[in-house]
Write a structure and sequence with these properties.
Layout lengths: L3 H7 L5 H14 L6 H18 L2 H8 L10 H4 L4 E5 L4 H15 L3 E5 L2 H9 L7 E3 L7 H15 L4 E6 L3 H10 L4 E6 L17 H22 L4
Helix pairs in contact: 2-3, 3-10, 4-10, 6-7
């Protein structure tokens, strides 16, 4: 399996970083007579592959079961003592959903499990400065973030907690929570740019479709990596 840290560094299939990395490999292969044909085929196949990945119907297939995962109405969740918002792709939608649900869920505290961009998006959505706090985890993986959340819940004797993650990320977060025996509710947020999924437009390539394919492929690889490590 491709090293997971390598994919995190350059981006998975569908990303600009991955495109440039494959293109560079193809150009390198073209410099030698024995591998020139393989390099040429790679250069031809690469843009065609990205064009196919940009088709919303294809992207929806890579999203898999996460394609139909959506948050419930606020009234269905009830009250939460604390909400943990995980950083990552689609942080704007994670923040927007949290800001929308917070008045109904009435959490004592909202934890920013990530960086400044997620914090700024929460504040822009209406979360008051005294309502959120940094989660000083130093975590580099979702699994490490979940370990910190479990310890945090135990230390403060939190009775009911929620974790907000994107709909693509939510199934993996749910599986990790089950593995760690955490009693939490995972709330899925939409992706920042939802591609068209009806009519003829679902077959028209779009940037939103390419982004969804990239994130869906990344999650599939991440799930395989996490299962191999026994984290879910």
């Amino acid at each position: 399996m491709i090293r997971f840290w390598w994919l995190k560094a350059i981006g998975g299939p569908g990303s600009l970083g991955f495109f440039l990395a494959v293109a560079a490999c193809a150009l390198a292969l073209r410099r030698f007579s024995r591998t020139r044909r393989a390099g040429t085929w790679m250069l031809v196949a690469l843009p065609i592959s990205y064009l196919l990945l940009a088709v919303p119907a294809v992207a929806n297939g890579f999203a898999g079961s996460a394609a139909s995962v959506h948050a419930e109405p606020a009234a269905e969740y009830g009250h939460f003592d604390e909400i943990f918002v995980l950083d990552g792709d689609n942080y704007r939608s994670r923040a927007s959903l949290t800001a929308t649900l917070a008045p109904a869920l009435q959490p004592r505290r909202i934890w920013v499990v990530g960086g400044g961009e997620l914090r700024d998006a929460l504040v822009a959505g209406g979360i008051r400065s005294g309502q959120w706090r940094w989660a000083e985890t130093g975590a580099r993986t979702t699994y490490d973030q979940m370990l910190w959340i479990r310890e945090s819940i135990a230390e403060r004797h939190v009775q009911r907690a929620a974790i907000v993650a994107s709909r693509l990320h939510a199934p993996r977060v749910t599986a990790i929570a089950k593995q760690l025996q955490m009693n939490v509710v995972v709330i899925p947020s939409p992706v920042d740019a939802e591609p068209s999924m009806s009519g003829v437009r679902r077959w028209v390539p779009s940037l939103a479709g390419l982004q969804l394919s990239r994130e869906g492929l990344y999650e599939r690889i991440a799930v395989a990596y996490y299962r191999r490590n026994g984290w879910m």
